[in-house]
Amino acid sequence: MKNKHLNFLCHDFRGEIWFICAKIFKIQHTAITTMLTKVLLTIGGTKYGKNLSCRGILQVSRAQCSTIVIGNNCKFNSSSLYNQRGIDHRCIISTGKEKARIIIGDRCGFSGVSVVADKEVIIGNDVTIGIGVRIGDRDDHEELYETNAKPVHIGNHVWLGMNVTVMKGVTIGDNSIVGAGAIVTKDIPSGVVAAGIPAKVIKILN
Question: How many CB atoms lie within 10 A of CB 3?
Answer without folding.
Answer: 7
